[in-house]
Design a protein that fits this description.
With about 425 residues, the protein is α/β, with parallel strands linked by helices. The protein has two domains: about 5-210 and about 395-415, Rossmann fold (3-Layer(aba) Sandwich); about 225-395, Glycogen Phosphorylase B (Rossmann fold, 3-Layer(aba) Sandwich). It has 14 helices and 15 strands. It has helices at about 15-30, 55-75, 90-100, 115-120, 145-150, 165-175, 190-195, 225-230, 255-265, 300-310, 325-335, 365-375, 380-395, 395-415; strands at about 5-10, 35-40, 50, 75, 105, 125-130, 160-165, 185, 205-210, 240, 275-280, 295, 315, 340, 355-360. The strands form three sheets. The chain has a seven-stranded parallel sheet with strand order 3-2-1-5-6-8-9, sandwiched between helices. Strands 12-11-10-13-14-15 form a six-stranded parallel sheet, sandwiched between helices. Helix 1 (about 15-30) crosses helix 14 and helix 8 (about 225-230) packs across helix 10 (about 300-310).
């Protein structure tokens, strides 16, 4: 019997984690799985996505903000990332219990949707796809220290933190409420290794399944047409960089890209190159990078994004830390090579010198070499063809759906034993 699956996500399409969850849901629907979503914020207009009751929703969100914000502010930290203590209960746990779901599939839920205790109260078999590090950390969504591996003790707090130890308190609540192992799925091998090394989840079952994408819908457009549609120059090398908020998130490594571009100013392979930045409008005082820059702002519909990837000769993802960024998967699906650092989940996307270039972690000269290498190959189209081929073999619905079906089977069997 095909299990009924209920995906639980804060949103359906607002943000990278939400879009990944929505694609997993549709990937399974295409495979014949009875898959539905419940979300706190429904934006897609999809009848298979159930949103919250609208009565009092805004007032409740305001109350949650007033309650949680002072707690987060008690943590003094120089780490500019989101912290989610996930303390306030909601009605979602009751709704999940009342549903006919055989499997509860959690995604990014740790904001306004489910508290840590709520997760522990779910009695149905759970599968949890991690879109960041939060589940096995404290309150932080990403971190460069190793308390998640060693345990959140009083004697191993990082020097950049002071005040109330929100992360230790949050981690202890997870240990208290999550008594039964949950079947974890990670989109990248890096994140799976982190789970296996973590003090909280090292004995839990872990599977790796890439974030899927509809390769029938996502396919390359003819480059000259894509550039014409977007108003981009026709005959110059175009290098693409994208992130929510553009260069404001230090984890996305825009500053490292700037250093790499400095190395490229006199490189003959980068002669005539222009940059395209999406996820950000042109700032009041654009930086002088030695190369012309085109800012596209936020592009939310799939056709515009397909055109953007197809217009570019290469995409650069200079992240310091990333799981399996949708931008890399989308670029490869549109036959666009990717240049990135060998870190996090990026080696799961890029095959070095075959579908792009993997530079030594945070070596900006090597990143510059990678950009030059890919641009030098652009006329042959070989890297792009191989990127598309990899996307078909690794990220297509037909490949990923059976991986999740196997996870569901294991989760159901474990719940009966």
């Amino acid at each position: 019997m095909t299990p009924r699956v209920k995906h639980v996500s804060t949103s359906d399409i607002a943000g990278g984690a939400a879009r990944a969850a929505y694609r997993i849901h549709h990937c399974l629907r295409d495979a014949g799985v009875d898959s539905r979503m419940v979300v706190n914020k429904a934006s897609a207009g999809d009848w298979m996505v159930e949103g919250p009751a609208t009565k009092g929703r805004k007032a409740l969100a305001a109350v949650r903000g007033r309650a949680v914000s002072p707690l987060v502010k008690m943590l003094k930290t120089g780490n500019p990332i989101i912290h989610s203590p996930a303390i306030l209960p909601s009605q979602w746990a009751k709704r999940i219990h009342a549903s006919d779901a055989d499997i509860v599939h959690l995604h990014w839920v740790q904001g306004e949707m489910l508290s840590i205790a709520d997760v522990g109260r779910i009695q149905k078999p759970i599968v949890w796809t991690l879109h960041d590090m939060w589940a096995f950390c404290g309150a932080e969504h990403y971190t460069e220290d190793h308390r998640w591996r060693d345990g959140y003790r009083r004697d191993n707090r990082p020097s950049h933190e002071s005040g109330f130890d929100l992360n230790r308190w949050t981690w202890q609540r997870k240990r208290k409420h999550w008594q039964q192992p949950i079947h974890i799925v990670t989109p990248s091998q890096w994140l799976a290794d982190c789970v296996r090394d973590s003090a909280l989840m090292r004995d839990w079952p872990v599977s790796v399944a890439a974030n899927p994408i509809d390769t029938e819908r996502w396919k390359p457009l003819e480059q000259s047409l894509a550039r014409e549609l977007l108003g981009l120059p026709a005959d110059v090398p175009l290098l693409l960089f994208g992130a929510m908020g553009g260069g404001r998130d230090p984890r996305k490594g825009f500053d490292l890209l700037l250093q790499a571009l400095e190395h490229l100013r006199d490189d003959p392979h980068a002669q005539g190159m222009e940059l395209v930045v999406f996820g950000q409008r042109a700032p009041q005082s654009p930086p002088n990078l030695g190369f012309p820059i085109h800012y596209t702002g936020h592009l939310n519909d799939d056709l515009s994004l397909r055109a953007l990837y197809s217009a570019a000769d290469a995409m650069v993802i200079p992240s310091r830390q990333d799981n399996l960024p949708n931008t890399g998967v989308e670029a490869h699906t549109c036959a666009t090579p990717v240049i990135a650092f060998h870190t996090g989940g990026l080696p799961d996307i890029v095959d070095h010198q075959r579908t792009g270039y993997l530079a030594q972690a945070f070596d900006t000269e090597d990143l510059a070499e990678g950009i030059a290498f890919v641009l030098d190959q652009r006329k042959t189209g070989l890297l792009g063809d191989q990127a598309r081929e990899k996307a078909l073999k690794q990220f297509s619905y037909e490949v990923v759906a059976p991986q999740y079906q196997a996870v569901y089977k294991a989760a159901l069997e474990n719940s009966r034993s």
